[in-house]
Amino acid sequence: MSELFAIKYDDHSKTFVVTGEMTLESAKLALVESKGVFDAVNDIEIDLQHVTQADSAGLALLVDWMRTAKKAKKPISFKHLPEQMDAIAKASGLDELLPLK
């Protein structure tokens, strides 16, 4: 079984790397794991390349992170958006709001 969800900061690339699932099943864990994780950096870049599964709950988590960054007055961007998440974002119109790299 794969890791349900993890977010770690990579000092070399200065990027947060998300691994595992971003689904309804992992959403609660993801909220807990990511709480306060962005506090120590000025620019928030999140790499989603290693996300194994994603759904609308995962997309909602990205929106929550955007809200957190806005409150902290920090720029945020996402790269390597998973295909499933990209499709949901396009269908809902959120793709125009997501800060993608």
What CATH first level would be assigned? Alpha Beta
Estimate the strand proportion: 25-35%
Full CATH superfamily name:
STAS domain
Biggest sheet statistics = 4 strands, mixed
Shape: globular
Count the DSSP helices: 3
Lateral arrangement of strands in the main beta sheet: 1-2-3-4
Helix content: 25-40%
Mean pLDDT: 95
Number of strands: 4
Q: How many domains would you count in the coordinates?
A: 1
User: What pattern of helices and strands is seen along the backbone?
Assistant: EEHEHEH
Structural class label: alpha/beta
Remind me, CATH topology?
Transcription Regulator spoIIAA
Work out the radius of gyration: 12 Å
End-to-end distance, in Å? 30 Å
CATH architecture: 2-Layer Sandwich
Q: Report low-confidence residues grouped into runs of 5 or more.
A: none
Protein name: STAS domain-containing protein
InterPro entries: MlaB-like_STAS, MlaB_ABC_Transporter, STAS_dom, STAS_dom_sf
Domain STAS: 1-101
Pfam family, one: STAS_2
List keywords for this structure.
3 helices, 4 strands, Transcription Regulator spoIIAA, four-stranded mixed beta sheet, alpha/beta, 101 residues
How would you describe the overall organization of this protein?
With 101 residues, this protein is an alpha/beta fold. The protein has one domain: Transcription Regulator spoIIAA (2-Layer Sandwich). The protein is built from three helices and four strands, in the order ββαβαβα. A four-stranded mixed beta sheet has the order 1-2-3-4.
Topology:
Blueprint: E1 5-10, E2 15-22, H1 27-34, E3 44-54, H2 56-71, E4 76-79, H3 83-92
Parallel strand pairs: 2-3, 3-4
Antiparallel strand pairs: 1-2
